[in-house]
Write a structure and sequence with these properties.
With 74 residues, the chain is mainly α. The model has no long low-confidence stretch (mean pLDDT 77). The longest helix has 24 residues. The chain starts with a helix and ends in an 11-residue tail after the last helix. Helices cover 74% and strands 0% of the residues. Helix 1 runs antiparallel to helix 2.
Amino acid sequence: MKTRIILRYIHLLAAAVLGTFLYSPWGTEPAFRLAVQAGVFPVLLGATGVAMWQQGRLKRLFRSAPSTGPTARP
């Protein structure tokens, strides 16, 4: 549950930056344009969107990962 809330806030923050890029005069600044195109937009689509979409699979993947270290069995 905590992961979904964190991803939601990251997703909303990135969407706000993208909206600022599209609807404000800052969109013409080269540095801001590069930051949005190379940083914010890929994070918005890649990390947060896909993680929220596939959250169940990601949880199962990380939960079923083998633990490292020796295991003592009686």
